[in-house]
Amino acid sequence: MWEFPGGKVIYQPQGWVSHVRFSRNGNLLAFGDHVPTGDDGRVVVVDREGNRKVASSFYSSVEGVAWSKNGSEVWFTASPGGAARALYAMDMAGRERLVLRVPGTLSVQDITRDGRVLLTEDTPQIMMMALPPGEKNERNLSWFDWSLAADLSPDGKTVIFDESGEAVGAKYGSFMRKTDGSPAIRLGDGAFSVLSPDGKWVASLDLGSPAQIELLPIGAGQPRRLTNDALQHIRVAWVPDGSGLVFVAAEPNHPPRSYWMDLTGKTRVLTPEGTTGSIVTPDSKNLLTIDGQQKRMVYPLGGGEPKPFPTKLEDNDAIVRFEPDGKSILMAQRGVPAKVFRVSLDTGRREELRQITPPDPAGVLTVTAIHFSADGKSYAYSYFRVLSDLWVVDGLQ
């Protein structure tokens, strides 16, 4: 939720808010309002009480918001599909127009009162690396420009990844690639894909409106739609024994929560609204969750009262997975390099296992989406890099 001033809720996004900008007279706020899945978003203008004044169309990427020189329009950089953002303007009646398009990706940073526009021309990429079994050096497995590692097979030989750039369209694409460098295979539309325990299916989100869960076959076969409801599906994961899935979803105008679903589509609620999680213990009995106050709990999949997570984690800690024995977790600390630890659930003791650094750290903002093989010796990850040129542009109308 978004509070202004602190303690007064004026906006409840379904996903997340970015690029908040006050109008020149201070009476209105413009911002990017993003859905939970993917990067789809729009620009919204509200008053100081949270009353919506106007909203733009939806775009596949919205990065950068600024008020025009006389305050009559909101200018923003966005793309209807893919990631090649252009500069648009929206007036207070909701009319939109194209201001500037170049052969590249733009982000508006600011606009002066005399109309000069501060822009960056960005070259953003999500690159994917892997350490295959039995090898000492990482291999670059990036396919197009936005290769996000989504899952790694237990033997470390196959990586599942999502592509979300210009090459695949607005619904994104779910791909499979061997870590030996063999060409990638497109499995279908989708994002946030995870491999089934038996290696025969990938569960993926079809980013429609709202997003739905679909099973994509590995090899011959037809996709299977598992959900067809009004929920906005955000994240999905397999139960380790393969008996079903857990997923995070939100009803319209409600905070998200976690659900359990069997392979016929039968669904039941696991957590209260505002409490979510998709990591299941190796015995397939419990779900690790976190609420809006960053409190971690463990919910039984079969029903019953939740219990506190036994180990205290720091704000910068991201849980990668449970270890196979269920007695410890792999945890990554965000940053460059990303540090990976094994943390005992009984004692809280941390053992640093490795540091993951991209081969060329120039422009790298974060290392993300780290996945390990069952034996912990192989891994895959992605990193987000942005190289930018800064421009001051005169004469835009």
User: Termini, distance in Å?
Assistant: 35 Å
What is the CATH topology descriptor of the largest domain?
Neuraminidase
Mean pLDDT: 92
Q: Based on Cα principal axes, name the global outline.
A: globular
| CATH homologous superfamily descriptor of the largest domain | TolB, C-terminal domain
- Kindly provide the radius of gyration, computed on alpha-carbon positions and rounded to a whole number of angstroms: 22 Å
- Please describe the biggest sheet, giving its number of strands, its sense, and whether it closes into a barrel: 5 strands, antiparallel
Beta strands, count: 35
| CATH class category name of the largest domain | Mainly Beta
Number of helix segments? 0
CATH architecture of the largest domain: 6 Propeller
Please explain how this structure is put together:
This protein is an all-beta fold and 397 residues long. It folds into two domains: 114 residues, 6 Propeller (Neuraminidase), CATH 2.120.10.30; 264 residues, Neuraminidase (6 Propeller), CATH 2.120.10. 0% of the residues lie in helices and 53% in strands. The protein is built from no helices and 35 strands. The strands form nine sheets. Strands 11, 12, 13, 34 and 35 form a five-stranded antiparallel sheet that branches. A four-stranded antiparallel sheet has the order 3-4-5-6, with no helix packed on it. The protein has a four-stranded antiparallel sheet with strand order 7-8-9-10, with no helix packed on it. A hairpin with a 6-residue loop joins strand 20 and strand 21. The chain is globular and about 65 Å long. The mean pLDDT is 92.
